[in-house]
Amino acid sequence: MSQDSIHLVEDKGQPVKYTVLEKSLIGNEIFEAGQIAEYAGLPSENLAPQCDIGHARYQEYLVSNAARVAKVRDQYAAETGGIDSKAFAAAIALAIAESRAGDDERVAKIVASVLAAQKAAVDGRATKSLA
Predict the structure, then answer these.
(1) What residues are paired with 25 via a beta bridge?
(2) Count of CB atoms within 10 A of residue 9's CB?
(3) Model confidence, pTM
């Protein structure tokens, strides 16, 4: 980062203009996509910088966000013992699918039984048991 960029990023008190890329809440005000918003903080992906200060602040946001994401990733990896979350999710999905394997057949039998009882009732031959 150049000396000029560092100076621009340090000037956080001054609001700069950004084009709003998607409906956003900025400083307790809702902005629609395409509107121009003034903002003094670090912009995220929903704001497109309109000046050098804005571009420098956006770069600072990217660096700080990458560091924050890495920290959270490391924290949760330590808490889960390094478990691969995608493999874990796939194992859970497989277990659920296997536990439901017979559901379709059981439901089909129940529906057939109910329809038979309904037909019998309509035909005047009501049965005492649905089994």
Answers:
(1) 30
(2) 19
(3) 0.51
Spatial CB neighbours of 22, under 8 Å, sequence gap ≥ 6: 33, 46
Contacts of 23 (CB under 8 A, 6+ apart): 30, 31, 32, 33
Q: Residue 120, Cβ neighbours under 10 Å: how many?
A: 13
Tell me: the pLDDT tens digits for 57-107?
999 999 999 999 888 888 777 666 667 778 878 888 888 888 777 777 888
Local structure of residue 74 (DSSP, 8 states): H
Alpha-carbon gap, residue 121 to 55, rounded angstroms: 76
E strand or H helix that includes residue 36: strand 36-39
